[in-house]
Write a structure and sequence with these properties.
The protein has helices spanning 3-22, 33-42, 45-80. The protein is 77% helix and 0% strand.
């Protein structure tokens, strides 16, 4: 096995991991202790509800999006005839 494909794979993996390592941690959880303390001191009840609403929408959107992409892929493959008959 040549060393060149291994180097390409390593370079690709490091290029994909670099943005993840450089990004700041996401603070999307509205129920965190620090988030609640800040909201209580500012009286931000509407922000609290908005945070929960956005979290729920995000948690629902991801599975529906994945299911939709999978369905579209299966339908396209079926139309091309590349799915074997059972």
């Amino acid at each position: 096995m040549s060393l060149r494909p291994i180097l390409r794979l390593g370079l690709l993996a490091s290029a994909l991991m670099l943005p993840l390592a450089a990004s700041a941690p996401a603070s999307a959880c509205p129920n965190c202790k620090s988030g609640l303390a800040v909201q209580e001191s500012e009286g931000g009840r509407a922000d609290f509800a908005t945070g929960f609403s956005r979290s729920i929408i995000l948690m629902l959107a991801i599975p529906f999006g994945m299911f939709s992409i999978g369905t579209v892929a299966v339908v396209r493959m079926a139309r091309k005839g590349s799915i074997p008959q059972l």
